[in-house]
Amino acid sequence: MNLGEKYKQLFEGKVRSDDSSLLTEALARGLKPLLMIGSKVKWTTMSEDALLDLSDKFEELGDEDADSIASHLNMSIELKQDGYKGDATKKLKQFNKACADALKGKQVKSAFENVNEVESDDANTTGEFDYDYFIKQFDSVQEVIEETEYELLQTLDGLAEDEEVYGLVSDKAEQAANQIRRYINGAEKQLEGIKNLLDRSKRTKAFDA
Q1: From the centroid of its chain, how far is CA 201?
Q2: SS3 category, 26
Q3: What is the pLDDT along the chain (209 residues), one digit of tens a residue?
Q4: 68: in domain
């Protein structure tokens, strides 16, 4: 199997996410293959160990640009380890974008250089209602729900489809999975309604003193 096919199967979840041979082959070919992997990785498809391996491969290149790109990945891993799943997901998406930008030849800043800029942008010093802050908070809530839903339903669907599991347990797992999907669909609609309300209020400055 060639490397390109391995990339494809990794992204589709058809090969093990901790397959270190994929990263080893990528390293042998330089930074570009690592960027191709990095532009697609997700917490829902890659284990923490696999992402740590990917970070190590960037570091082994001994390249300043590679370090800047990998800083976004490293921050995502740290956030996940500290229990901030929503923030970890957002930071990993920034890593995806950093890799995609680098593949296009764009300069990428270190994640740590951007920290002060983000804090400055998020600070509300005008005394007005901070619409953007609360909208971002609900974005984070939605991301956590999506990630948790994926993990839970994967487990329940696995029980429901496992032929070695006692039939009653399998049936209950299938019923629970269907019920959870309905509950989460309803919750997502409610959250979207709150975000729409905040967006409308932002346009009209409804809560500004």
Answers
A1: 29
A2: helix
A3: 444 444 444 444 444 444 445 444 544 557 888 898 998 898 888 889 999 999 998 988 887 888 888 999 999 999 889 888 888 888 898 898 888 888 887 777 776 664 544 444 444 545 578 888 888 888 888 888 888 888 888 888 888 888 776 678 888 989 999 999 999 989 989 999 999 999 999 888 888 86
A4: yes
Q: Are residues 100 and 145 in the same domain?
A: no
Range of the domain at 139: 131-204
Give the chain's end-to-end CA distance (angstroms, integer): 63
Residue 7 shares a structural domain with residue 109:
yes
- What letter would DSSP give residue 92? H
d(CA 178, CA 120): 43
